[in-house]
Write a structure and sequence with these properties.
The structure is a single chain. With about 190 residues, the chain is an all-alpha fold. It has two domains: about 1-85; about 100-189, no CATH class. The chain contains eleven helices and no strands. It has helices spanning about 10-20, 20-35, 40-50, 55-70, 70-85, 100-105, 120, 125-135, 140-150, 155-165, 175-189. The two termini are about 15 Å apart. It binds iron/sulfur cluster.
């Protein structure tokens, strides 16, 4: 819903300000490589659907990236189907819902995959670098790393949210789309 008014060209800004780290990472990799493997396409695609990206815009968005890598024709043949599928327009016509944190945290990304939860699946070095790029500094980084060491990944994400937005998030983060809408609410105040 909130995304309906945000045009595709504003994605980069919104991704930086309001995407949780798991989605921001996928988004940046997609922009960089013009490609994501299946697990990443599902995780990011359903998240974007959840924030209000319509099917036609989703097709245009993914095509703009993938066609730089595999060409528009191959995109139409091999990838457009699964995007329509996510929107319940193909196959069993199930209207798929975005993944929760729990589902993402328990996924098992392999080599070359970019899905999953960075708090669980990144190396310490990569996570520290990613937090720095998000604008989390000093003691806040150590607080996040402390939660990670104790395997409290959603609490680590909640602390990141609080550090970036400068306010407390008492309910905690349990869904990437909740992170997004809470962030947008904060920024629009
Ligand atoms: Fe994404 Fe949830 Fe992990 Fe945060 S805790 S990075 S929202 S999966």
């Amino acid at each position: 819903k909130e995304f309906a008014e945000i045009s595709i060209k504003d994605f980069d800004l919104v991704a930086k300000s309001s995407f949780p780290l798991c989605m921001r990472h996928l988004f940046e990799k997609l922009r960089e490589d013009h490609h994501l493997k299946h697990g990443g396409r599902m995780q990011l695609g359903l998240f974007l659907k959840g924030v209000g990206l319509k099917l036609d815009d989703a097709l245009a968005f993914w095509k703009a990236e993938f066609s730089q890598k595999v060409g528009g024709e191959r995109f139409d043949k091999e990838y457009a189907y699964s995007i329509r599928h996510n929107y319940g327009r193909e196959g069993k016509r199930t209207d798929y819902t975005p993944y929760s944190c729990q589902k993402i945290i328990s996924s098992t990304p392999g080599v070359g995959d970019h899905h999953g939860c960075p708090y669980r699946h990144f190396s310490e070095e990569n996570l520290r670098a990613a937090l720095c790029r998000m604008g989390v500094n000093g003691g806040a980084v150590e607080d996040v790393m402390d939660k990670v060491r104790n395997r409290h990944y959603q609490l680590a994400c909640t602390l990141t949210f609080e550090a970036i937005h400068g306010l407390s998030c008492d309910a905690g983060i349990n869904h990437p789309n909740q992170y997004f809408s809470d962030s947008q609410k904060t920024l629009k105040v």
